[in-house]
Amino acid sequence: MCRVPASSMDAFNKSALDFSLDDDSKSTASKILLSLTLSLLAVITTTMNSMVITAIIVTRKLHHPANYLICSLAFTDLLVAILVMPFSIVYIIKEAWVMGQVVCNMWLSVDITCCTCSILHLAAIALDRYRAITDAVEYARKRTSRRAAIMIVAVWVISIFISLPPLLWRHHQASDDEGCLIKHDHIAFTIYSTFGAFYIPLALILILYYKIYRAAKSLYVKRGASQLSKQTMNGTMLPLCSDRDPQSPDTLSPPEKSFSDLSTEGDRVRITNKSPQEGSRRERSSRKQRISGNREKKAATTLGLILGAFVICWLPFFLKEVIVNTCATCGTSAAVADFLTWLGYLNSLINPLIYTIFNEDFKKAFKKLIKCGHYM
């Protein structure tokens, strides 16, 4: 039997120790990088939603019932950034829940309720915009601050009722060795929570935005035909119909313009002094088609961003919830579960961007806020 020299054994032990230290240092470095990345996302989410809330509060032009829904959505996403994300970062880095069951229950309550409420806000905004486009004149009279407040309260109440049963069930089944999570032992709880929090709102949002796009497309065609039908009066080209037809998208409130920028200032047909002989009927028809096509493309792009961001952020998480909680042999790693959870949290960062970036009033308000912050 061969005997290994002591010097060789020492060298082997030293190399093994160095390898272990290298693994530990790599693990520490990766955790630091991960915590910094997640913390940065939380800070950006907090900043963006705070700016939306502040802009609506300080800008008189944004004081509109539909914008109150945007403000409530931003407030909900702000709660996610402040009360949910930091605890999740600690949980991920520590790889265990170290803050006790009381804090765990509070964190899960806020997490589920606020995320559900954020999703339901998107459905409420879709419903509000659908009514504003398909029944503009009548709904304009009904669209009051009181109605917006009722919708916001209803969204919060529904969110609480959706999130409460799973939380109560977890309270009875809580076990310290399972960490801070909710595991549904019954399919009924999984169906109730996932369908109430995501799948039903998703179906509603898809249907409403499809109808919104169809209605907007129809309005673009009618508005284009109205604007390009002209009569000659004292040598001046004037529209036959008012430039602000009651049923045209121009009469929609600022949130509708933010949704699809239905009223594009550069596309408006202005009064000119050109004679009727200038330009052929074919040119006018081509211009109408170009204007209508551009607006339809813009509306489709905006709808694609809204729906795409929502589906990409939340669908993987809720698919995982259904699969894991209904299949006894199925499961996911902690890394995958954390990634899907934070993909859902990312929607709270994207919401203030998508729902305000297409609105010129919001853009101006943000610029003013940034200038004020620069001079402070």
From TrEMBL:
Gene3D superfamilies: Rhodopsin 7-helix transmembrane proteins (1.20.1070.10). Residues 239-293 are annotated as: Disordered. SMART domains: 7TM_GPCR_Srsx. It comes from the Eukaryota. GO terms for cellular component: plasma membrane. GO terms for biological process: adenylate cyclase-activating adrenergic receptor signaling pathway; adenylate cyclase-inhibiting serotonin receptor signaling pathway; positive regulation of MAPK cascade. The chain crosses the membrane at residues 32-58, 70-93, 105-127, 148-169, 189-210, 299-319, 339-358. Its main location: membrane. It is a multi-pass membrane protein. Keywords: Cell membrane, Disulfide bond, G-protein coupled receptor, Glycoprotein, Membrane, Receptor, Transducer, Transmembrane, Transmembrane helix. Residues 48-355 form the G-protein coupled receptors family 1 profile domain. It is found in: Cell membrane. The keyword Endoplasmic reticulum does not apply. The keyword Transferase does not apply. GO terms for molecular function: Gi/o-coupled serotonin receptor activity; serotonin binding; serotonin receptor activity. Belongs to the G-protein coupled receptor 1 family. This is 5-hydroxytryptamine receptor 1F-like. The lineage of its organism: Eukaryota, Metazoa, Chordata, Craniata, Vertebrata.
